[in-house]
Amino acid sequence: VLSMRFSSLRELDLSNNNVKDLGLKLLSDGLENPYCKLETLSLSGCLITVDGCASLESALSSSHSYLRKLDLSYNHPGDLGMKLLVPEQKNPSWKLETLRYGEKTRAGFLKYSHELTLDPNTAHRELLLSEGNRKVSSNQGSSICCICFSGCSE
């Protein structure tokens, strides 16, 4: 699709897929094609490492690349992988304007969270539930782990 002569694809979101480095190599080959007009590529959580970043750098260095926005958050490119892709260090022909990588905010991690509550009718009799059945403590002074897991020795 990326190399079709009249491709109208401008945005591609492959987030949370197992694209990995080999898949990114194939995508990068497509990005180098003069017919490819892709401007936004989202690869968040695709298991990309420094090897994938090297393939992508080659594509971005191509005079045919139209890519302006790239999301590599929740991957494993390492410092070297990111250095390959930092737009300020590249030649002026690079069109990449936005590079997203490394979620370091609490909000970024909270997207994977889920609010849980415990059922007081099925909770162990030595556990005390509070705060709307979201907080657990022991009513016997024992460790919660020892109450819940047999074979525990404190």
Kindly give the count of domains.
Answer: 2
What CATH calls the topology of the largest domain is Leucine-rich repeat, LRR (right-handed beta-alpha superhelix)
Please give the count of helices: 5
Strand content: 5-15%
Strand and helix order:
EHEHEHEHEEH
Q: Overall 3D geometry?
A: elongated
The helical percent reads 25-40%
Keywords: Leucine-rich repeat, Repeat
Protein name: SPRY-associated domain-containing protein
Organism: Maylandia zebra
InterPro entries: B30.2/SPRY_sf, ConA-like_dom_sf, Leu-rich_rpt, LRR_dom_sf, NLR, PRY
Key attributes of the depicted protein:
154 residues, 5 helices, 27% helix, B30.2/SPRY_sf, 4-stranded parallel sheet, two-stranded antiparallel sheet, leucine-rich repeat, Leucine-rich repeat, LRR (right-handed beta-alpha superhelix), 2 domains, alpha/beta
Can you offer a commentary on this structure?
The chain is α/β, with parallel strands linked by helices. The protein folds into 2 domains: 94 residues, Leucine-rich repeat, LRR (right-handed beta-alpha superhelix) (Alpha-Beta Horseshoe); 36 residues, no CATH class. Helix content is 27%, strand content 13%. The protein contains 5 helices and 6 strands. α2 links the parallel β2 and β3. α1 packs parallel to α2. The mean pLDDT is 81.
